[in-house]
Design a protein that fits this description.
By secondary structure, this protein is an alpha+beta fold. It is 17% helix and 31% strand.
């Protein structure tokens, strides 16, 4: 798996809308229409957030 990258401001806002703490997540992929994130401490935790 590739290393996660820091979030942009818009990505932080999307993560907050889903009731997650943006300080705990890193971006793995950012394809059109969704955002793939992974947890900072336990990297096995992955989520996909749909974007508008």
């Amino acid at each position: 798996m590739k290393n996660g990258k820091r979030l942009t401001r818009k990505q932080k806002e999307l993560i907050q809308e889903v009731k997650l703490n943006p300080k705990d997540w890193l971006v793995v992929k950012n394809p059109t229409g969704e955002l793939h994130i992974v947890h900072r401490q336990c990297s096995k935790t992955k989520r996909v957030i749909p974007c508008c």
